């Protein structure tokens, strides 16, 4: 009897060589690949983080530290909270804070305008082609150009008051009345910047479920009902983003308009923290006080932003 050939014992499949035990933890190449995958996100994010730390966070820390030092004869000497006390005692800074409160109250209007225009464009209501063709035009203009244009339009003897006179309404001193000037400047800023917010809203509409809009049409929902019960809940995160960016723009991007249209006047009524900081740094040569005002502005934006996010999240849950 012939002995069994090597490798045939063990039944079917015995001809297949037996694999040895797999190395614990995989091969070295596999381990290196997994390590590279884990490190890849950090390597990609590292340049951005470095830029933020060097160009944003570190100057912020230096500015906060500088706000506790003195100006003039006490240049560089620690003064504690004296700069912040001086801010609260300065009527111009109190006016700037009061105007910040006014901006916060006007913020829903500044967000609603581009939101409604984006809704009209998306729902193709009559006139949507006009909105689509002209909505972004103001955003490409320099604030200096915008301010110069509206200085001419809002002059006491300018075209706007001429139109009001034909309507039987007396002339308005748009830029010379302390009770009107801040509203005029904020209105011009909203007109000049709402194009960017409208683009963000249109991007948000791209993520909205079209089936919900179709269901609203089938159910006979009116346009206000569609906006309230379908559009607003579906764009909650977009609305939050636009609220925050619009607020930051109002508090940090109105210097050009203020400088050209009112110069902070009349009687300091159009002062905002941003303009106050420039006056203290550029005209009064008080950099430590300007740093204190910058720190206060940062805290204001942080607190208002967090409150807005909290309120909008609560409204989104209620809807």
From TrEMBL:
Q: What is this protein called?
A: Sugar ABC transporter permease
Q: Which UniProt keywords apply?
A: Cell membrane, Membrane, Transmembrane, Transmembrane helix, Transport
Primary location recorded for the protein, binned into one broad class: membrane
Against PROSITE patterns, the record matches this protein to: ABC_TM1 (PS50928)
Domain (ABC transmembrane type-1) spans 92-308
Xref: Pfam families: BPD_transp_1
Question: Which stretches does the entry tag as region Disordered?
Answer: 1-33
The record's family statement is: Belongs to the binding-protein-dependent transport system permease family.
Residue ranges annotated as compositionally biased, kind Low complexity, are 15-26
Q: How does this protein lie in the membrane?
A: Multi-pass membrane protein
Q: Does the keyword Transmembrane helix apply?
A: yes
Query: Where does this polypeptide localize?
Result: Cell membrane
Organism source for this protein? Actinoplanes sandaracinus
Give the transmembrane ranges: 39-58, 100-123, 135-156, 180-208, 241-261, 288-307
Under InterPro entries, the record lists:
ABC_transporter_permease, MetI-like, MetI-like_sf
């Amino acid at each position: 009897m012939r002995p069994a050939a090597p490798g045939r014992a063990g039944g079917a499949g015995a001809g297949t060589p037996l694999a040895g035990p797999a190395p614990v933890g995989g091969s070295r190449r596999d381990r290196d690949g997994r390590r590279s995958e884990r490190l890849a996100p950090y390597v990609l994010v590292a340049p951005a983080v470095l830029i933020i730390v060097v160009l944003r966070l570190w100057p912020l820390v230096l500015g906060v530290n500088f706000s506790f030092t003195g100006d003039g004869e006490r240049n560089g000497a620690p003064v504690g909270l004296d700069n912040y006390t001086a801010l609260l005692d300065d009527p111009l800074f109190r006016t700037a804070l009061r105007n910040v409160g006014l901006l916060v109250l006007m913020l829903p209007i500044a967000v609603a305008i581009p939101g409604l225009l984006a809704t009209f464009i998306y729902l193709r209501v009559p006139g949507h082609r006009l909105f689509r063709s002209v909505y972004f035009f103001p955003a490409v203009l320099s604030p200096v150009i915008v301010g110069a244009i509206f200085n001419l339009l809002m002059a006491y003897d300018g075209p706007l008051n001429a139109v009001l006179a034909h309507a039987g309404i007396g002339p308005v001193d748009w830029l010379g009345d302390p009770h009107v000037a801040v509203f005029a400047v904020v209105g011009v800023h909203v007109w000049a910047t709402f194009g960017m917010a409208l683009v963000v809203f249109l991007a948000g509409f791209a993520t909205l479920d079209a089936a919900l809009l179709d269901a609203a049409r089938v159910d006979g929902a009116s346009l206000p009902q569609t906006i309230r019960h379908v559009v607003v809940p579906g764009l909650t995160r977009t609305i939050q983003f636009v609220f925050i960016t619009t607020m930051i723009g109002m508090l940090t991007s109105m210097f050009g308009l203020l400088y050209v249209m009112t110069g902070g006047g009349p009687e300091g009524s159009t002062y905002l923290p941003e303009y106050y900081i420039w006056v203290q740094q550029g005209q009064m040569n008080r950099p430590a006080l300007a740093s204190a005002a910058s720190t206060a502005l940062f805290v204001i934006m942080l607190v208002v932003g967090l409150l807005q996010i909290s309120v909008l999240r609560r409204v989104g849950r209620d809807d």
